[in-house]
User: Fold this.
Amino acid sequence: MNLGIKILVAEDDPNLGTILRAYLQQKGYTVFLAIDGQMALDFYKQEEIDVCVLDVMMPIKDGFTVAKEIRRIDKRIPLLFLSAKTLEADKLKGFEIGADDYITKPFSMEELLARITATLRRSYTDDRPENNIFSIGNYTFDYHRQILSINGSDQKLTSKECELLRMFCINFNQLVERTSTLQKIWKDDSYFAARSMDVYITKLRKYLKEDPNVEIVNVHGVGFKLTAGMAKDTKK
Assistant:
């Protein structure tokens, strides 16, 4: 049932971490267990993580710091905090960072599973096929079929082109940061990865030139922005 779902669990208590991993694996999830904040970030950047469960109090980097760094890369990935802290201020801080849920210790395994399941359901509603067809000016972009269409003419896109264009569509008319894009799609923000991304953006601009109202704007030194007369998800 949960085949392919990857969960990052960051918990510095070795006993609790081992129990959490074993329980979630038994439920069919693939689990990566980190015992400190830096290890959690490393796992996140190396693997295609679907949901992060972060303990607040961890060595090297605490859960809030890890969450901030992850949110700079991906504003949509589900984040759940685990904490022994019950203060309202701590919970509010978690939600301000962008947490989807905040679970106070002690908790039952069943409660954690229910919260993870609910968060995944909420967060990935927009990833269903019917919500991955976008209108960009006079173009139609079908993410899953990897096709960009205009006036009956189809352009087949590569996987990287699709990921880039989808990121621009989801963040239409908003700044998409260069570094975040590199880390999310290329898993690398080196000079060579940046040059590669520039090549793909040049290709996308070429594909989109049939509609003069559509433009991928270069925000100098920061990132890019997709603009058009209208760009929206065509879900009904």
The longest strand covers residues 6-10. The chain has two domains: 6-127, 129-233. The first helix runs from residue 14 to 26.
